[in-house]
Amino acid sequence: MLETIKQFVRTLISQGLSKHTIKAYESDLLQLNEFLKKYFENEKIDINGITRLYLRDYLRDLSIKGRNNRTLARKATTIKNFFHFCERQKLIEKNPAVNLQIPRFEKRLPKFFTEKEMEDLLNIPDLSSKFGVRNKAILEMIYSCGMRISEIAGCRLFQFDLSNNIIRILGKGNKERLVPIGKMAVSAVKNYVKIRDQFISRDSDETLFLSKSGKPLDADEIREILERYIMLIAKTKGYSPHSIRHSFATHLLSHGADLRAVQEMLGHSNLSTTEMYTHLSLKDLKKVYDQAHPRSKKED
Fold first, then answer.
1. Which domain covers residue 261, as residue numbers?
2. Pick the catalytic residue: 75, 80, 148, 246?
3. Is 277 a catalytic residue?
C-alpha cells in the first residue's frame, strides 16, 4: 500500500499538480493506510485485499469523529482517484471504490475582497524595499490575471510578453492559457525585473520570483507572504491568498465581463466551476439595487 501511494504521488507530480494539492492527496491516503491496518495481519496491507466495506467503514469512522460532509467528500474523491490509478496500472484485480458514494454537501461561495479592500491590499508593500517591490508584483499579477499560487510560483521570465501585455500561464495538468495583464501589473513586474539582479545567486534560474537566498519562491513561501498582508486588511475570518483569485473573477463579472472569457482566463475546464462567481455578482447587484432603487422596498 505504501509503495503504491508513492507511485501515485509521483504520477501527480508528473501531471503538474500543485505541492499543496499533492500534499493533501498524500495525507488522505496515509490516513486511510493507518485505518486499514486493523484489517490485515502484521499491519502489512495487501492492496488487493481492500474491500468496499473497509472503505465505507473508514468514511463512517470519520463521520462519527465529527468530520463534515465537505471533508468526507474530499477523502472519498481521493480514494476513488487512487484506486482508479491502481486499476489503470493493473495493480488490482477489482476496484473497491468504483461504487463508493461521495457525500453531498452544500458548496460554499468563495470569499472575495471588495474593490476597496483589494486596493488597500495592493498598496501595502513598501516599495522602498526590494522585497516590497517583489511582493507588489506578485500581488498585482495574481489580481490582474487570476493566477493560482502554484502558477505564480512557477512563473518564468519567458512566459511574459510585456510589449503586448500578455502572459502565457502554465496551469493544472500542464495546460497553457494566454491571459491579458493589466497596466498596473505590467508596471509592477517591470519595476521588479529592474531590481531582480539584487536577488540572484548561483541557486537562481529563470523563475521570476526569487527568495532572499536567490532560490525560486515556492507556493508555500508565497502563501506565507500573502497571508501576512491579508491579516492587515481582512476584517473577518475565512480569507486566504486564493481569495485574490476569487476577487479577480468576481470583480470582472460585476463589471460585465463575459462568463466564458472569465472561464478561459481562470483556466477552468468546466463552465459550471466558473458559474459560482455569478451567484456572488448577483448577490452584489441585488444589494446595490435594494440600497439605491427608490421603489425596491415599497410594497404594492
1. 115-290
2. 148
3. yes
Contact 63, 75 (CB under 8 A): no
pLDDT value for 255? 84
Q: What are phi and psi of 281, to 5 degrees?
A: -65, -45
HSE of 290, CA atoms in CB hemisphere, 13 A = 6
Buried b (16+ CB within 10 A) or exposed e, 74-95: bbbebbbbbbebbbeeeebeeb
Same domain, 18 and 162: no
Q: How far apart are CA 89 and CA 83, in angstroms?
A: 10
Establish if 187 belongs to a structural domain: yes
Query: Which grid cell is 296?
Result: 425596491
- Give 72-96 pLDDT, tens digit per residue: 888 999 999 999 999 999 999 899 9
Examine the residue annotation and report whether 136 is marked as an active-site residue of this protein: no
Q: How far apart are CA 192 and CA 51, in angstroms?
A: 55
The residue with cell 410594497 is 299
Longest dimension (CA), the chain: 75
60 among known catalytic residues: no
Cα distances from 120 to residues 43, 149, 232, in angstroms, run 54, 20, 9
**CATH number of the structural domain spanning residue 221:** 1.10.443.10
